[in-house]
Amino acid sequence: xxxxxxxxxxxxxxxxxxxxxxxxxxxxxxxxxxxxxxxxxxxxxxxxxxxxxxxxxxxxxxxxxxxxxxxxxxxxxxxxxxxxxxxxxxxxxxxxxxxxxxxxxxxxxxxxxxxxxxxxxxxxxxxxxxxxxxxxxxxxxxxxxxxxxxxxxxxxxxxxxxxxxxxxxxxxxxxxxxxxxxxxxxxxxxxxxxxxxxxxxxxxxxxxxxxxxxxxxxxxxxxxxxxxxxxxxxxxxxxxxxxxxxxxxxxxxxxxxxxxxxxxxxxxxxxxxxxxxxxxxxxxxxxxxxxxxxxxxxxxxxxxxxxxxxxxxxxxxxxxxxxxxxxxxxxxxxxxxxxxxxxxxxxxxxxxxxxxxxxxxxxxxxxxxxxxxxxxxxxxxxxxxxxxxxxxxxxxxxxxxxxxxxxxxxxxxxxxxxxxxxxxxxxxxxxxxxxxxxxxxxxxxxxxxxxxxxxxxxxxxxxxxxxxxxxxxxxxxxxxxxxxxxxxxxxxxxxxxxxxxxxxxxxxxxxxxxxxxxxx
Length: 520
Hints:
Elements: H1 4-11, E1 31-36, E2 41-45, E3 90-92, H2 97-102, H3 114-122, H4 142-164, H5 169-178, H6 190-203, H7 206-219, H8 222-231, H9 233-245, H10 249-258, H11 262-274, H12 279-292, H13 300-325, H14 331-334, H15 346-356, H16 367-373, H17 378-391, H18 401-404, E4 406-407, E5 411-412, H19 416-423, H20 437-446, H21 451-458, H22 464-474, H23 477-487, H24 490-497, H25 505-516
Antiparallel strand pairs: 1-2, 1-3, 4-5
Helix pairs in contact: 5-6, 6-7, 7-9, 8-9, 10-11, 11-12, 12-13, 15-17, 20-21, 22-23, 23-25, 24-25
């Protein structure tokens, strides 16, 4: 069955509607066609059956004459009035002769009965052009559709104007900053693009600057685009940030090289090498970096550091493989490894080796080997070793620190005074200690170091007021008594004695100081 749209298109045409009525005739029905002439009414009887597929063209002024052989004829006096409804001129052979002779020229077809009902059933409900009276009516939704067409036409014209007419640069930048629609392809000349970029930079709006820079990159040659970036550091930095945010690192490195910022380009490539997790690929990428991006003499220092890192990665890989298979070291059972040592910082690796490989002298995992291979300072070496040994309950006193700086080949690298200067300043006003005693005391206290060890390091703290506060914080009673005696605070010592258990070593020491000491 035809769709509603197809019916409306079909029946809406006035020139096809009358001819289509032949499709509704019953195949077994005989119809009569009543016409009109100047002499009067007459009835033409068609005994020929009307085929559903036969279409009788309706032409203005057709003359019908009788034909005896075909039981239909054409009379020269008959004319068809097509202005009337086709239903007015059709009747069935079921009508009696009397009713036919008495019928009027018009209105006869309205008594068709089932045929009329069939036509009404087939008429689409949305069709307005075809009516019984033959009057063409206007569609009720046409006005709304025309309004929509006019509105869309106006919008299209406005959009065309915005897209193809260059507005002032200030207006375009304002639209970009406020989130309004804008178009940049209208600015074709180099001067317009420079003016647009300058206006975006004056607005100090990052998104607008990036949008203009991307437009310039897509429409200018690379040489001209680089000239614009070289003329404005803000534009260059904004565009580099845009590339890094989109992870277009290769383009960012090429841009840095073109701008002459080789150090930043090498640093960016170095960060990309660090992101590699595979050991072989990482070391290969670092070696490529040292041979290509760090070939400049100004970057020799960085090249040395990266070569040291490659060597450290190789050493860490070897240590990690050996320790993961080792079952003879009892320290691994008593102090299980928290994680792999691979790809850890240098001081963390030294801390690890001070814990588990302190006795492996001469091997690649010995702490002394790290100090000589990577040129560690006394402060760096002592800080990692003292904390690492304290983790396994092996504590060094300050006077033992010089032995930590001894190697088999170089002899004594530090004296007692040098070691002490690494952890404190002398009473004679020596320089500030290179080793932070407050942090070292925190590490020793966290490792449950005995009070005697803490007191030994507290005795090196200056000034004395700080020594007293630290001794009270870590609850080292002997150090508190010594600090109060050094400060000659008799009243404070007497108050502190009230907190000490009578007969304890600290109580006896404080009492002796009160009796023999020289006070203010």
